[in-house]
Amino acid sequence: MDEKVTDNGYVPIALALVTCDYIHRDNTTGKYTIVGTFNSLISRAYPSVVESIAVYSAVTEAIGEYEVVIRIVDVNEEKEPIASLKLNLTSGDPREVHELGAVFQNVSIPESGEYRIQFVTNNEVLLERKFLASLAEEEPEGE
After folding, report:
1. Fewer CB atoms near the end CB (10 Å): N or C, the chain?
2. Partner residues linked to 127 by β-bridges
3. Domains along the chain?
4. Is the entire prediction scored with pTM above 0.85?
5. Cβ(41)–Cβ(85) below 8 Å
6. Closest Cα partner for 35 from 15, 59, 52, 49?
7. What DSSP designation does 63 have?
8. Which residues are within 8 A (CB) of 132 and not within 5 positions of it... i.e. 6 or more apart?
């Protein structure tokens, strides 16, 4: 993949992208707590609405101001993103590691299959991770 250099010469590097049930940032220490990590969803039927999908991310080698987009897309990116959140990142020192949290509410997953959660800035996907949406196996009657 060709790296695209920003106007200031720095190429941000995404270090982490974690999907989970819940994230919390302590106001005193600035530390994040990540609860209930996952890489798949199971539902009895699709479309299915997921109450909450939290995403923790970390990035470094950034300097200046960036608009970061965390989005959920189908595996081939043939349709519009299922969900998308914009975050602002400001960095004065490329050695810093910046942690970001995003929480999607009531996400409608249209069908079972493979999806991607992407960290995007400067119209470039810096990091993505897959997650699978699958149908729950039904238990036989009487068990």
Report:
1. C
2. 119
3. 13-135 (2.60.40.1930)
4. yes
5. no
6. 52
7. -
8. 39, 40, 41, 113, 114, 115
